[in-house]
Amino acid sequence: MRHPSDGIKAEARYTTVNELYELWKDLKRGLKNNTFENYKYMYETFVRHQIGDKRIALLKKSDVKRYYNYLADERCLKAATIDNIHTVLHQILDMAVDDDYIRNNPSNNVLKELKKSHIFKTEKRRGLTRPEQDLFLSYMKEDPSVQNWYSVFAVMIGTGLRVGEVTALRWCDIDIEEGIINVSHTLVYYDHRTSEGKKGCYFNVHTPKTEAGNRQVPMLDFVKEAFLMEKERQDLLDLHCEATVDGYTDFIFINRFGQPQHQSTLNKAIRRIIRNCNDEQFLKDDNPDVLLPHFSCHSLRHTFTTRMCEAGVNVKVIQDALGHKDISTTLNIYTDVTRELRKSEFEGLDLYFKKA
Predict the structure, then answer these.
(1) Number of domains forming the structure of the chain
(2) Residues 49 and 140 in one domain
(3) What is the DSSP letter of 251?
(4) Are 93 and 134 part of one and the same domain?
(5) For residue 13, what is the DSSP state?
């Protein structure tokens, strides 16, 4: 029943954001399962107990802005996480507008405004420079305590695959003789506690969201060497994959228990390698020429892209290798080259003008 004065449903005065979320969840279609699970996780973790009990008719733009400020200032969430939360909340409020619970979506333009403020300014991701890359790889290759990590990180640097694509690789997905890696699925690990009948956190295998994600990536020589080293290491230790995930098994990169590697474990390993490597560099020289910066697994994908840019590889080839559907995504990364490359290009341009 609608209130005769404004066309808004009378029950809107009593309907909460949480109740509308339940309706949105029941009606939402067309999303990959892992995307939908991520949306539900974001809502249950960050929205439900903060503004979920608020009546939709009383939710104002200032409330949403205050909530996002809270997420950034007090919860210290990254801009990307708040972006995901906003995606869910905005869709719920859009549905509320369509169903006559409210006239306007109070989250409209809020995130856009906040992104211009200081709280959303983050450091731009960059790949490792060539000296940093060489130090990272050589340290792992030479230090027995971290040699087990060399193969997986070398493959990341030499292929540009996403973390989930690398950890999902099976031995049958690579052709050493032909030098080809077949990328057709991703290993994801997320919280299932928001799903009916499911409990806990565990792996699932998902296919790419777009056709661009299904691709063949050529092996560079050091990538081929990394796969062979990993096979030799596992044979020597009599290590075998003990996991089956959604019918997939025989994963290449496994831990000592035969289980697939997890992104958080890989990032912890990187942090430990950075610390130990830099300590060793300072022992050799009080003022070392190269130190490893703080970086994560995803930085290795940027490292691959940077090397491709430095080599002058065609942007379309880079797009295909990275599995980007939209070339604008590739172009944004393509233009974000290292300081050394920009400097050398301008030095070359300076010489060109002097000769003219």
Answers:
(1) 2
(2) no
(3) B
(4) no
(5) G
pLDDT band at 2 (very low <50, low <70, confident <90, very high): very low
Identify whether residues 234 and 141 lie together within a single domain. yes
Residue 226, token pair as written in the block: 């990394």
CA angle 280, 283, 287 (to 5 degrees): 105
**CA-based nearest residue to 111, from 173, 73, 64, 54:** 64
Beta-carbon count within 10 A of 133 CB: 19
* Whole-number Å distance between alpha carbons of 92 and 90: 5
Q: Give residue-wise pLDDT tens across range 169-218.
A: 999 999 999 999 999 999 987 655 555 555 556 788 888 766 777 899 99
The domain spanning residue 101 has which CATH number?
Answer: 1.10.150.130
Q: Say if CB 248 and CB 168 are below 8 A apart.
A: yes
Q: Which domain holds residue 279?
A: 130-346
Same domain, 109 and 150: no
In one-letter notation, the amino acid at residue 103 is R
* DSSP structural state of residue 169: -
CA distances in angstroms from 187 to 49, 128, 164, 202, listed in the order given: 30, 25, 5, 10
C-beta of residue 154 within 8 angstroms of C-beta of residue 223: yes
Strand order in the sheet with 174-175: 174-175, 180-183, 215-218
55 and 80 housed in the same domain: yes
Please name the residues in contact with 98: beta carbons below 8 A apart, sequence gap of 6 or more: none
Tokens 């290449």 map to which residue? Answer: 252
Contacts for 105 with CB less than 8 Å, ≥ 6 apart:
90, 93, 94, 96, 97
Spatial contact of 333 and 315, defined as CB atoms under 8 Å apart: no
Contacts of 14 (CB under 8 A, 6+ apart): 55
pTM: 0.71
Helix (H) or strand (E) holding 174: strand 174-175
181 beta partners: 174, 217
CA-based nearest residue to 207, from 7, 32, 27 = 32
